[in-house]
Amino acid sequence: MANNNQFVNQIADIETDFPQWYTDVVLKTKLVDYGPVKGTMVIRPYGYAIWENIQKELDARFKATGHTNAYFPLLIPYSFMTREAEHVEGFAPEVAVVTVGGGETLSEPLVIRPTSETIIGEMYSKWLQSYRDLPILINQWANVVRWEKTTRPFLRTSEFLWQEGHTVHATEEDAMKETLKMLGVYKEFAENCLAIPVFTGRKTEKEKFAGAVATFGMEAMMHDGKSLQAGTSHYLGQNFAKAFDIQFLDKDGTHKYGYTTSWGVSTRLIGALIMAHGDQRGLIIPPVVAPVQAILVPIAAKKEGVLEAVAALKEQLCSAGIRADSDTSDNSPGWKFNEWEMKGVPLRIELGPRDIEAGKMILVRRDTHEKIEADLSNAAETVKKLLDEIQHNLLETARKRKEERVVKAESVDELLKGVEGGNFVKAGWCGCRECEDKIKEKTAASARVIVEGEEAETCVCCGKKAKHVVLFARAY
């Protein structure tokens, strides 16, 4: 383990320079690299493997709730963006526009997809005829482009990957049920797959999606006490239905506008798991989404039978559905330990001549660094059990932090003290945009979600009667 300090010294201190720690980790573990165009990222194989596992888990959940996948064009006529007034105003600063194609100036500029409500709305207006066609439940896995001024890999980039669900319903009630149901799907996924407990709730008018009637967000607490918006679900009412003429012939023989929703999560979720679970040694990836769940490291690899035993154990684990790999490079065992530890692999398995002779293996947990000796005879069962324990422990550790770092405030000064201490802050709010802006100006904290089922007497800013309890935090 002599190289341990050398590896740790390659990344900034997580407690004193968390932003630099994050950048060091995502680059040194080869999750991403910077693209040649400012603000873009190249997702490298290790990072993309995490996204594939996220995609696999979410896609199964979407299909289990009746949704199907489709794909819509990347290029959108500029005129589509102008049909819904709030929508175009909200996205105008971030839109990339194509004006030349095939060497000729286009008759109409084209927008590179920042989100797909407009083009999907146009297609739904063609496809929807009768109440019998409802509900329309479609999801798209795609890339989007938003011309961001300040970028950071995974958290905010000019191009990123995501999924966007777009649905149409006959009634407001059905559409609102869909909006909240998908928020629940996201929450369950975040907790059971990413091991991240989240806050969910309605966004304020200031924070809602451009063109939505209501936006519901999923907020995750990061290591430094800041919030990361990890997903959103939007009730769009009839705003886009009217803008794109999404009508259907109802049972009573009259034409009616549909009610639409949209909801999405992105590669930002990779940033969330990095900042929620990582430590001074690097990444800690929850087993459910880890590209490699168990890494096998041979000890005294040149001795007879060691590499053969490692290969046999790897095959046994893989056959049992465990994502196992082996490091048979000529690097020293200590170097390998630190390399795979930095990459966040949940479980390390050491196997040397003495272990093989005794019918044993040494397992080291990434989350607790606990070293365990176990029988080789039931290796797959042991590994699966430990992976489940690691997944559970990561969730419970994050849950404890979430519970301990929420404080209450009855004044702006208390709110400021709370967020400066690395906390989320619950406070009363009168519902006034002016107070919301003042809080942001004085504390650099924004309203993350409205807390349901809780009441406060007065607004933390103006002292008038509070309409809501709001969760405030500084955010990425």
Give the helix/strand layout:
Layout: H1 4-8, H2 18-28, E1 32-34, E2 41-43, H3 45-64, E3 68-69, E4 75-77, H4 78-81, H5 85-91, E5 96-101, E6 104-112, H6 117-127, E7 136-145, E8 159-169, H7 172-192, E9 198-202, E10 214-221, E11 227-237, H8 239-243, E12 247-249, E13 255-257, E14 259-266, H9 268-277, E15 294-298, H10 306-319, E16 324-326, H11 333-342, E17 347-351, H12 353-358, E18 360-365, E19 371-375, H13 379-404, E20 406-409, H14 412-420, E21 424-429, H15 433-443, E22 446-451, E23 468-473
Parallel strand pairs: 3-7, 15-16, 15-17, 20-21
Antiparallel strand pairs: 1-2, 4-6, 5-6, 7-8, 8-14, 9-10, 10-11, 11-14, 12-13, 17-18, 18-19, 21-23, 22-23
Helix pairs in contact: 3-7
Please tell me how large the radius of gyration is: 25 Å
Main β sheet profile:
7 strands, mixed
Number of strands: 23
Spatial strand arrangement across the major sheet: 3-7-8-14-11-10-9
Distance between the termini: 36 Å
Helix content: 25-40%
What structural class do you assign from the helix and strand content? alpha+beta
Q: Given the structure, what is the number of helices?
A: 15
The coarse overall form would be globular
Instruction: Estimate what percentage of residues fall within beta strands.
Output: 25-35%
The overall pLDDT, averaged over residues, is 96
Name the poorly predicted regions.
Answer: none
